[in-house]
Amino acid sequence: MSMDPTTGGLLTAASRHSGPRWAALCLVSVATTGAGLLLPAALGRALDLLLAHAPATRWVLICATLVLLLTGLDACETVLAGTLDARTTAFLRRRVTGHVLALGPRATLRFGPGDLVARLVGNAAQAGTAPGARAALLAALAGPVGGVVALGVIDPWLAAAFLTGAPLLTLLLRSLARDTSTCVADYQRVQGRIASALAEAVGGTRTIRAAGTADRDAERILRPLPELSRAGRRMWRVQGRAAARAVAVAPLLHLAVVAVAGMLLSRHRLSAGDVLAASRYAVLATGVGVLVGQLSGLVRARTAARRLGEVLAEPAPTHGDRSLPPDGPGHLELRGVSARRGARTVLDGVDLVVPGGTTLALVGRSGAGKSLLAALAGRLTDPDAGEVLLDGVALPALSRAELRAAVAYAFDRPALLGTTVEDTIALGLRCPSPARVREAARTACADAFVRRLPDGYATPVADAPHSGGEAQRLGLARAFAQRGRLLVLDDALSSLDTVTEHQVTEAVLGRAATGTRLVVAHRAATAARADTVAWLDAGRVRAVGTHAQLWRRLPGYRAVFGAAGEEAGA
Ligand SMILES: Nc1ncnc2c1ncn2[C@@H]1O[C@H](COP(=O)(O)OP(=O)(O)OP(=O)(O)O)[C@@H](O)[C@H]1O
Asked: What distance in angstroms lies between residue 93's CA and the mean position of ligand 1's atoms?
């Protein structure tokens, strides 16, 4: 049951997080085992005294006290184990959620949203039982070990009789741990694949309905079910086989101990009470059934922790602690920037300068890398080579807070996060204020429709209208409220009606606009309003100039806009 360092470290951190509770659980579990080990000796002593007609009340009372103590300890163990599991699970979920968000788009690229949810929900809950399972295994091991020691104390021959079969038990447990680990890993992997396919289908319900492929997609999502069932059955078979072997071996060992005890009784080396105690200790020592259960639980928890460890092993982007020069104009510079997606180099050694306070429109055919370049400009993703600087500071050198306050983004399909509409617009603001939110909403032409909502800005975001244009206006309002020195609009006006688009474009690109703006432009009219246009083609910047210059000189540039562009450009 070897552990990679990430998984081991994660479980150690989780145990440390619940340290006192884990220590208390270990203590209670070991105390339970200790009380369980004392009971046979006390019973044997009481029996001997009763058989000899000697006063045995004290020993009978000790036996009763031990039984009561065992009941109390058992209750404590249940409560401690339950709360420890819950705390550890919460700790793991917090840690992995934080890391997934720190990874940004890379997390979904590498694992897929469904698989991530499966890991965060199912695997985290299972991994959360690891510290409790470790404590339980410790106690379950203490039982057999204590049983053998007690047998040795009664008579060394009893321990020797038991130990002849011990190697068999060790082999049994080792093969159980190994086989269970493989089956559980297979099972959890298949579960992750089903979750991925389901998340994809949930995101594409409209497409599935429009295509009328619901049955086919349900079949596709559940296709790995037989594999899941095979992995599940394999898991039960492994455990069943181990339990069956244990059931075969344990009574033989028990019998051997009782036979030796009987022989020693006949030679007057043991009393009847000793035989009773030895018989019970032999049962404790052969408690492999308990061990099988505990070991399987621990293996399942560790396998689940390994899946969380895989997510944590993905390196998150680091941030420096530098600040931007105060009152910088938002001068953006890309130096030799290259970025790959899949096997393709989408951007190849791109150099680009956007002087502070100006607007640059990114133009290019579909798939040319406009969104990728827009993402690189505000460090939503990092380049594979080259660097991006804002006001002379490389983006990775900036502190996270400084970077996020300096660069605002609006997207074509913004995620509306937060509780109310007001929260959605104020998301991420250092000093949110109602006035700032309303002003931003007015600039984005969202104020009028928000005020018409039943509770205005206090309307739950789930109840707010979500048409493409309305969502885009809320997303734009969020970007405007941020008042960063760089504003990046990635196709953020595409769903607006013509009048609204004109008003928003005027606010963003008109004379009154402030800061530097990077706009992904699909329409010639938008490109024409920018100070400069960068034409992306085949991974490179083919030309930089005003729209009018590029339009006049370059037929390839005109072709990007097609027939509609000919009219707008003209
Ligand atoms: N996760 C990914 N895996 C593989 N390729 C990707 C991934 N994301 C983007 N790409 C590819 O990178 C290229 C650039 O994508 P990008 O979204 O930047 O293009 P774009 O110019 O904005 O296109 P559009 O105008 O259609 O939005 C495309 O060929 C795209 O298929």
From this structure: 31
